[in-house]
Write a structure and sequence with these properties.
The chain has 473 residues and is an alpha/beta fold. The protein contains 15 helices and 15 strands. The chain is globular. The structure holds pyridoxal-5'-phosphate.
Length: 473
Amino acid sequence: MTSSPAPVRATGEGSRTPRGTRRVDAARDHLWMHFARHSGLYEGHDVPVIVRGDGVRIWDDAGRRYLDGLAGLFVVQVGHGRRELAEVAARQAEQLAYFPLWSYAHPAAVDLAERLAAYAPGDLNRVFFTTGGGEAVETAWKLAKQYWKLVGKPTKHKVVSRAVAYHGAPQGALAITGIPGAKQAFEPLVPGGLKVPNTNRYRAPDHLRDDGKAFGRWAADRIEEAILFEGPDTVAAVFLEPVQNSGGCIPPPPGYFDRVREICDAHDVLLVSDEVICAFGRIGSIFACDDFGYVPDMITCAKGMTSGYSPIGATIVSDRLFEPFRKGTSTFAHGFTFGGHPVSSAVAMANLDIFERENLVDHVKATAPAFRTTLEKLLDLPIVGDVRGAGYFYGIELVKDKATRETFDAEESERLLRGFLSKALFEAGLYCRADDRGDPVVQLAPPLICGQSEFDEMEQILRDVLTEAWSHV
Ligand SMILES: Cc1ncc(COP(=O)(O)O)c(C=O)c1O
């Protein structure tokens, strides 16, 4: 299912802008990279300039080839270089490049809304389009607040989410985010964002570590504790990822979501499944709540919906939540110029056609156990403390001492992750993520078309680089 043409010969020269500047120099001087420290570019390091993708491979502007172990940014599910998606985009742009969803509809958005509603569980039948994940999260919180006002519970406005979880950069979504370092510079944020522990079992309290069910119950009960402490009449929603990305692909313990659903129902709190990463086959199903057997009140999604061939996001909500907006003069006064863009909607339809034609969901379900087994071989390395995740979404937690699970301090993390690992993995031909927003982890989320040979390639590169990393500890 993958295609990988012969590697382009490395010229080492890099590319130039239309004005004749070396691209790495123009990037250093003019481009503001997201979530990036720029100082390195003034100390002799060049930013990688990625020019092309095909299947599971990407190329930089010096002709070097890499395995895309992160599907761009958890996005490129069907792989790079799919001509049919480019052609659909061109056709749609020619026919109707743009029209808003502000009191009007266009066929691509209507068709996609109907299709997403059919994939979604329960009565999640109403789709509000955005341009990305952060806007989808922002939309879900605003909608939750207004819904409770319309049904006569106007004081319900706070939200519960988990430590270290990332839910987006807009100021509402950032208030839901649980990463202190990502928030401090922008405080004060939207008030009302409450935090509870996440479900990292490797870091669970000692007495719960060996009993998944008990840990799941404990972690879910922390949500109820927060709701009761604040007062259920003040809490609007709980935002949870099916598998938490930040902190290193943290899966839910058994029974966790059943208990969370029970708690939400008991206290009239909406459950939002933030599937910006986990939807569209990343865990296995089109919507990952199906992988764990719960029905949320809203799903937020984005990334994999178009495999990145054009940007889009969505908040999918239940009939119950839409009901008060169906009547009289009530309006959800919220929207985005490019939400549900015709080109993106058409591309999403074609992307989902590929999912169905190539049985990508079944492919992930069938091969995910082999991905896990292959990555678990790395547990024989002294620096690998934990391998965790689900589907095509794995984190490898690095530790200083396996026996005690001692982690690296901030300075060691800095030296290891930024100073060595990211660069060494990339130079060895693997694009993935070394992340220290929680304990240090390497994350893998390859295109869903990968198979055993790519799993082996990832394992081999990681083995070589992590072995060398140990000598830097
Ligand atoms: C769970 C989750 N929610 C929201 C977002 C924000 O999405 P975007 O970057 O498209 O705004 C992300 C981004 O990675 C995410 O992982």
